[in-house]
Structure formats: C-alpha cells, structure tokens
Amino acid sequence: MKKFRRWQRILLFSLLCLTVLAPILFVSVGKFFIRFSVRGRKELISDLSTLRYRRDSVQLNAIEQEEGEGLKGPKLVVYDEKELDSRVSYSASEENNDSKKYGNVGEIDQVSKRSQRAGSMSIPFERTNHESREENQQIPQETVTSRSEAKGQSNQTTAQHDQNMRSPVRRFTDEKVKQMKDDLIRAKAYLSMTPPGSNSHLVKELRLRIKESERSVGAANKDSDLSRSALQKKRSLEVTLSKASHVFPDCSAMALKLRAMTYNAEEQVRAQKNQASYLVQLSGRTTPKGLHCLSMRLTAEYFALSPEERQLPNQQRVHDTDLYHYAVFSDNVLACAVVVNSTVSSAMEPEKIVFHVVTDSLNLPAISMWFLLNPPGKATIQIQSLVDFKGLSANYNSTLKQQNSRDSRYTSALNHLRFYLPDVFPQLNKIVLFDHDVVVQKDLAGLWSLNMKGKVIGAVDTCREGEPSFRRMDMLINFSDPFVIKRFDAKTCTWAFGMNLFDLQEWRRHKLTALYNKYLQLGYRRQLWKAGSLPLGWATFYNRTVILDRRWHKLGLGHEAGAGPDGVEQAAVLHYDGVMKPWLDIGIGRYKSFWSKYINYDHPYLQQCNIHE
C-alpha cells in the first residue's frame, strides 16, 4: 500500500514538472525557428542580388552571339556616391521587371547555366569590367565630360519618369470619397421624389443605404480614410441607385430636384454666413468677462485710497508746449495700457512724452488705479473724465443718441470727442491722437517736425483698391443729395483715423468745431452720411489734410482679410481697425503678439481675472 502511494506521488510530481517545463521548451524552439527563418530570408535576398549580376552577364553574352566578334563591349561608367542613390531606385525597378520576366529563381538559374555553357564566346562580367577600366584610362578628357552630361540627363529623365509614375496616385486620392458623396446626393434626391408616406421596399432600402453611407464617409477627406466596410457599403448604395433609376427614369424630374436641392443648400450657406457675421459684430461690441473683472477690482482698490494717494505725479508738465503730447480716448483699461506702454518704450526720449487719457466717469477710477500701480516710466500721464469738459453739454449728448445705429461705438461721446480737441486742450498747439486699438513700434519724434503746409490734420490715405481698409467717399457719404454734390468730390482720396497729427492753431483759425456741429445737425435732418465719426471727419477736414507716408501707420490688422505681412514689422504704428480686436477671442492670431507683448500677464490682477495671452 505504501509503495502504491509513493508511486502515485512520483507520477503526480512528474506531471507537474511536465506542465511547467513544456511551455519553456516550446518558446525556446519557437525562437530558434524564427531566427532560422530570418537568417534564411537574408540568405535568399543575398542570393537574389548575386543572380542579378549573373543575369547581366547573360544579356551581354546574348548580344555577343547575335552580332559577332566585331561588336564592342558596353562602356562602363564609374559613378560617384552622390549618383549612386539615383541609380539604385532605377535598378530596383529593373529588377522587379526582370523578376516578372523570368518568373522565379529556378528559371534564372537555368538561364545562367545555359549562358555559361556557351564556351569561348562568353565573356565573364568580372573580366569585362577589368578590360573596360583599362579602356577608360585611355579615353580623352572631353569624352568624360560628355559622359557626365549624359549621366545628368539620364538621372533627370529617371526622376521625371518616377514622378510621372507617382503623380496619378496623388491626383485621385479622394476620388472614391467624392463619388460616395455624389451618390448620397442622388439617393436623397430619389428619396424626395417618392410619394409622401410611402413605405415601399425601395424607400426602406434607400433610407438604410443613406444612413450606412453617411456613417461610413463621416469626416473622410481621402480614400485612405475609408475602411473596407465603407467600400462594401459604397457598392451596395450603387446597386440601390441602379434600382431607383429604373423606377424613376425621368431625367428632367431628377434635374429639377437637384436644382431645388442646390438652391436650398445655397440659402442655408447664406443664412449661416449672415449669422456668423452678426455674431462676430456682436462679439466685437461686448466686453470680455476678464476685462470687466479687472475694472471692478481696480475700481475697488482706487476707492480704498485716500484723496492724496490718488494723485498722479508730474501734473505740472501736462500743459508744457515744448513736450510731445499724445492723447487717447477710451474706456478700455488694457487698451490704454498698451497704447501708453508701447509709445513710451519705443521713444528715444521718453521724458519728453505727455499722455492725455480721457475716459468716462464709470472707468475713470479703474484706469487711474492701473497707472498708479504701473507708472509709465519717465513719461507724464494725465487722466481726465468726460464730465470735466463743459463743452460737451447734455444737449450734445442727446444729439449723438439721435444717430440711427445700434452700435455704441458710433453713438459714444468718446468717439466724437476728437472734434473738440481745441476745447479739450486749449493750451496746446499740436497733439497726436491715437485710437485705443493701436500699437506703437517706432519713435514718433519725427512727426513733430513734419511740415503741415497750413493743413489741420495729418493722416495716411485709404484710397488704394484691393486693401482691407480701402474706402471711397461715396461709400459713407450720400452723393445723391444736392448739398453733398455741391461741396464735395466723390473722387477725393480718403484717409483714416487711428493715428493723426493735429495742428490746433489752424483748427481754431478755421473754426472747424462749429463746422462739424453744422454737418452733424444737417445729417439728422436728412440722410447725408452713415453713422460714425469717419464720414463727418472727411467732411469737416475736406481739403485740409496732409497725407502721411504709409510707414507711419499700418492699417487692416483687425479685418478678416488681414493686412498682409508686408510692412507690419517696419510700420511705426499698427492699427487693429475692424471688429477683430487683439483683446478679444476673435482677434487674428498672427497679429496678437505685436499687441500682447506690451502686457505683463503675470500681473496679479490679470491672473485673478483669468486674463491670459
């Protein structure tokens, strides 16, 4: 009994060892066979390359046998390493063709053996190579030059041949995708031609095929994106379309239905474009949440200060006519900061700069607090509110609101304050006015020595067709009115606001503010010009404008078409005119960096309000 149990234990132990060792043995044997197969494959490739040279000798022997002893051997060309790559691709293609010609390796061996039995008529490849090398040493230099030219031509021919062979593949990579989309349109047209409420077998099949094909095509743009099942569904849809063509054989009805579908698609595209345009305009008129948060935080900090701490330094210099005076009218904290910082950092003599910032009473605390925390270096800054100017009476504000425009930019008092510059700055003789959507890249001291020739305003022209900022007088001014025709010429070159030099002495002498008020009132009585300050500016400063060099002022960085790369980095002032302002999400990305580099995004208030680059 004990022996039986002992043998039973030995048997169980042996089976356990066998189950453990068997997988290890199988894995090791499998690795051995894999290595052997890879090694055999490499040997097979080396044998094929050897057979390649053998086949060349066969072709040479065949030529010898046909033509006789008088035929010279082929002249061998010694290639450089650079030329070798171009020949390798061609040799590979020859090798593939030859392999098809001879069938398999066994046939190649038989051909090579028959060539070796040819006797004395056969010339070995190695010997021919040696003799031709001796002949090449005796060839004159001119012959070598002609051969190198021939080699270059053959290489170019080979490259062109390869390109021509590959070009059809590139050209028709999306042929099946386009065909499937066209078949989908046909299927929907057939489906719409069926009677309402029809539930026939063809209708069910069309609906099924349309659903399957739409899932298969998805967002595919080229044939390689399609799966095998997609190609099968494509064939199924073609069979269903063939059935539908027998049921609806009238081609005129099909053409009419496709025309109606095309019209509906165009109407949908037009509606989508109008909606997108409206949303872009709406986005341009709204204040981002981050800017609103920043204004609220700065306002709270400002009112926490005492009246003495709210005073800005060097206020005694704001009326010095020997300094360079710049002005910006805005209710945007970040926009004002960029205009001031870029102007001061680009100036050769920043201590001569005086900045006048005018805003509304709501944003005065926030802008004042920003420049108290971030003073503009050696420059002087003055911040004023609209309520500080008695010239802008309540009557004027109510007059502006009569403008037929929903855009607050056109009805804003800050937008029309530019026509009261002599009243806003009575002690100054010259001033440069910026829009708040500009960036200064160069020193502007050269503007102050510009000869104004008795004119009032200096500006860049906008009368070049094909540019995003192109304008004509008749685009914004109604030249069908007799009053307009008598006083203005529609072909007069237009100009732009954004960066303008004003001679305030000439302004006062011509009494242009009173002329502006006259035109403003006439515009309310009858439709003379569109809403906004630009057409009123063209009328008020008509024939009183000096055209500046375009390098002073680059326009169009806020338009969808863009300003183009020419002259952006060389311009003294970049103007983001248009809806796509750089502080908005819809701003043009390639131009944002010129604006954002003048903002310190590590500022704690910007971090707290989630304002990032």
Automatic annotation (TrEMBL):
Membrane topology category: Single-pass type II membrane protein
Mention one GO molecular function: polygalacturonate 4-alpha-galacturonosyltransferase activity
Q: Where is it located?
A: Golgi apparatus membrane
Its family remark reads: Belongs to the glycosyltransferase 8 family.
**Where is the segment annotated Disordered?**
89-171
Where does this protein come from, organism-wise? Salix brachista
Q: Which UniProt keywords apply?
A: Cell wall biogenesis/degradation, Glycoprotein, Glycosyltransferase, Golgi apparatus, Membrane, Signal-anchor, Transferase, Transmembrane, Transmembrane helix
What pathway, per the record? Glycan metabolism; pectin biosynthesis
Protein name per UniProt: Hexosyltransferase
Q: Name a Pfam family for this protein.
A: Glyco_transf_8
For bias type Basic and acidic residues, the affected ranges are 127-136
Q: Could you name the domain of life of the organism this protein comes from?
A: Eukaryota
Q: Which InterPro entries match?
A: GAUT, Glyco_trans_8, Nucleotide-diphossugar_trans
Gene Ontology terms: cellular component: Golgi membrane
Gene Ontology biological process: cell wall organization; pectin biosynthetic process
Q: What is its EC number?
A: 2.4.1.-
Supply the PANTHER family for this chain: GALACTURONOSYLTRANSFERASE 4-RELATED, GALACTURONOSYLTRANSFERASE 6-RELATED
**Spans of biased composition, class Polar residues?**
137-166
